[in-house]
Amino acid sequence: MSTLSLTRRDVDLLENPSWHALTGPHASFAIGGDLVRRYPAEVAPFVAVRSWDDPRVWEALAELVGPDAEVGLSGTDDPPPPGWEVLGQGAGVQMVETEALATRPFEEAVELGADDVPEMLALVERNQPGPFRPRTHELGRYIGIRREGKLIAMAGERLHPEGWTEISAVATDPEYRGQGLAS
């Protein structure tokens, strides 16, 4: 087992991956400005803040998302200013692989695209692996496994802060679990 060794740059990127994706590899998806950015709603629900230390950030956030919007935010434990309401909180876990992944061919794996979106959304609905929208597949490569024409497993790449890739939407139909398909 190796010891995890990240550079200060890596730590900065991974502490705010949505921001670094939206100002880097996913800049073409970015809506917003210098303080707050988001993905189009049909791509991903993520809103990113450059720094919570800037006193203008809440005003910029309100301008970006509009009134009565529900947004998921990360990176601050400070209470929001008046006019904002916390609807829920939770802790996230970020796992990082720093060694080269051992890969092996898997003949059943196929690349998924726009034509597969209805089945991808249905598989996500049955499994609830996290946010997945009709255009999420545009953020990276998604692969799937079909049996008898039915999409039974999938996974893909979502956030891409420079030099990193988030594995997303890992989902296996309940009828096909226990076969190692998610790996």
Strand content: 15-25%
CATH topology of the domain at 109-176: Aminopeptidase
CATH first level of the domain at 109-176: Alpha Beta
Q: Describe the global form.
A: globular
Q: Kindly report how far apart the N and C termini lie.
A: 19 Å
Evaluate the radius of gyration. 18 Å
Strand order of the largest sheet: 4-5-6-7
Tell me about the biggest sheet?
4 strands, antiparallel
Uncertain runs are: none
Helix segment tally:
4
Q: Superfamily at the CATH H level of the domain at 109-176?
A: Gcn5-related N-acetyltransferase (GNAT)
**Shape-level CATH architecture of the domain at 109-176:** 3-Layer(aba) Sandwich
Please count the beta strands (DSSP E, at least 2 residues each).
7
Structural class based on helices, strands and sheet pairing: alpha+beta
Average residue pLDDT: 91
- The proportion of residues forming helix, as a percent range, comes to 10-25%
Summarize the structure.
With 183 residues, the chain is of the alpha+beta class. The protein has 4 helices and 7 strands. Keywords: Acyltransferase, Transferase.
